[in-house]
Amino acid sequence: MSKVGINNLDLQGKIERFALPEVFQLLAKNLKSGTLAIFSKNSDALVYFKSGMVIYSYCNPNNTRLGDILVQSGKISPMQLSEALKKQISHPEKRLGEIIIQMHLVDPAEVRKLVRFQIRENLYNILTWDSGVFKFYENRFPSEEGITASLSTENLILEAMRRMDELSRIELTIPPMNSVLSLSPASDGRRREISLDAEEWNLLALLNGNNTIKDALAKTSLSKLEALSKIKAFLLSGLVQVVDGTLNNSDNSKFDALIKKLDEIVAKYTSSI
Length: 273
Fold this sequence. Notes:
Elements lengths: L11 E3 L5 H10 L4 E7 L2 E8 L2 E8 L5 H7 L5 H13 L5 H7 L5 H19 L6 E6 L14 H19 L9 E3 L14 H9 L6 H7 L4 H13 L3 E3 L6 H23 L2
Helix pairs in contact: 4-5, 5-6, 6-9
């Protein structure tokens, strides 16, 4: 049962009954400070608020990892990341960004910029969760973060909703999530001239004839929107194809039922002419 009492802020409930964008708006409107804890399916998150502004977010599992961002943007090498992660194991109380700065691998201002980017990306993902539970802990913060942001709730919600709309459109134009994709053979032995960036090559390597689209999304460091956008481009360009026999029978049945419905509608319409 959802409970909302904004005066003493007894705020907890189910996301199905009280959507996260509404929770964020309520906290912002009342200029609240504290931690919003969220659990959804197999994911959990912590969002820190200060005077109604979002200052930090943590999400587990986290598809927007700072180390991956730094490597993919060319700021550090994979070997340097490995060294930094080893240091973090010895000092678990320190964030990776703090260790990267102490190792003098990246300019502190650039690290702070990327950490704030990571915080925003986490929040865009969290705001799309449509099931689970939440609870707000007023004036309580599990950790003291060295790098924080100051983000408008309204702007976060607007961007999250825009991404959800875009994601819905993409999902309508690609095969079902349980489809297995593989590299398409070049036609007539023609040599391919493929120009991809590192992120695209890494994603393409996951589409190896063994992973479903859902598997690839779980293994890539890209956001769901970014990954599906690239997969759609791979399909449209003929770079990848659906492996025969991997479409779920229920998906085929749904498709056949929809086609039959269309046939009935067209037959009804033409008979009336």
